[in-house]
Amino acid sequence: MPSRAEATTLPSAVGVIGLGRMAQALLLPLLEAGQLQPGAVCASVATEGSAERLTQALGLTVGTDPRPCMAAPMLLLALKPQQLEGLLRALAPLPSPPPPPPGLERPLLVSVLAGVPLQRLHDAFPGWDVVRCVPNAPALVRRGLIGVSVAETLAPAARQLAHALLSPVGRVLDLPESQLDAFLALTSSGPAFVALVIEALADGAVAAGLPRAQALELAQAMAAGSLELLERQQLHPAQLKDMVASPGGTTMAGLRRLEAAGLRSALIEAVLAAWERSRALA
Ligand SMILES: NC(=O)c1ccc[n+]([C@@H]2O[C@H](COP(=O)([O-])OP(=O)(O)OC[C@H]3O[C@@H](n4cnc5c(N)ncnc54)[C@H](OP(=O)(O)O)[C@@H]3O)[C@@H](O)[C@H]2O)c1
């Protein structure tokens, strides 16, 4: 059995295929904390322009050939799902798997590709252990939620190593793969739903006479404060609603209108639609 220290220490080399927003969000905290040295990262992107820009900006080795990245014992796969087939064509024939990180039996591939199932990743990268994860946009500010699914046969040490890569940007949750689409519908699509609600609330304030910029700033601050209140006082959302809605008051008037317009049902349907779409894409 590998020790916990071995399993949670990142290997001396990490490959990255696709160094866009999400891969940078995952890597930068590790680089800043010194848990990963810039020289340990071998990254590849699609275009020379991006490679040059990222080499300059991040001080990493960034090229356009993915093959050298596949020599690292841990590989972060972070291109767009629709770019995977092109990558596999460019890699064919796939290089032999490299030696594993200390304490593991096989090299470890961590994929953030939305909708690409574990089985597809296992088929595409034979000889690698595979972790499928679903991060969300707040990972960009280290307040992410990251759902992680692995094959039942995966060694606990491999899962721990994936957690070590992902946990600096948020909360990592182990989930059965059958729940990942629901997790994505809530946590990955959810930020857009919340953003829409905030924007619409600001529109309401503009309609009532506030300047646009102020309305947006206030709507956002109100949402952030409300979330903090929920969190700090461990309130159920209904408790916060009841706390604000006094008998015959302004909030109750607004709530009646929201119920009549079907906001609650629209949000339920939005999450379900995202869930169905995620399943269809997979
Ligand atoms: N952003 C999010 O909030 C979020 C949330 C959940 C999941 N994800 C997942 O994260 C993954 C990446 O998303 P993103 O938003 O970071 O995308 P992105 O910013 O568009 O980055 C994609 C990266 O992949 C590179 N790339 C494309 N084809 C490649 C190839 N054949 N070989 C090597 N690199 C290649 C691109 O290089 P160029 O710049 O040269 O084109 C770019 O660096 C997606 O699979 C997505 O499902 C993202």
Structure characterization notes:
Strand 5, helix 5 (118-124) and strand 6 (129-134) form a beta-alpha-beta unit. The protein is of the alpha/beta class. 50% of the residues lie in helices and 13% in strands. It has 2 domains: 4-180, Rossmann fold (3-Layer(aba) Sandwich); 190-281, ProC C-terminal domain-like fold, CATH 1.10.3730. It has helices at residues 4-8, 21-32, 48-58, 84-91, 118-124, 156-166, 180-187, 190-207, 212-232, 237-244, 250-261, 263-281, and strands at residues 14-17, 41-44, 61-63, 74-77, 108-111, 129-134, 144-150, 170-174. An 8-stranded mixed β-sheet has the order 3-2-1-4-5-6-7-8, sandwiched between helices. Mean pLDDT is 94; it is low at 1-7. The site of NADP nicotinamide-adenine-dinucleotide phosphate (NAP) has 28 residues, from helix 2 and helix 4.
Tally of contiguous helical segments: 12
Class by alpha and beta content: alpha/beta
Second CATH tier, the architecture of the largest domain: 3-Layer(aba) Sandwich
What sort of overall outline do the alpha carbons produce when their principal axes are compared? elongated
Cofactors and ligands present?
NADP nicotinamide-adenine-dinucleotide phosphate
> Care to count the β-strands?
8
CATH class of the largest domain: Alpha Beta
In CATH terms, what is the fold-level topology of the largest domain? Rossmann fold
Strand order in the sheet with the most strands: 3-2-1-4-5-6-7-8
Q: Give the strand content.
A: 5-15%
Largest sheet: 8 strands, mixed
The name of the CATH superfamily of the largest domain reads NAD(P)-binding Rossmann-like Domain
Averaged pLDDT, please? 94
Helix fraction bin: 40-55%
Low-confidence stretches: 1-7
The helix/strand order is HEHEHEEHEHEEHEHHHHHH
Number of domain modules:
2
Q: State the end-to-end CA separation.
A: 35 Å
What's the alpha carbon Rg, rounded to whole Å? 22 Å
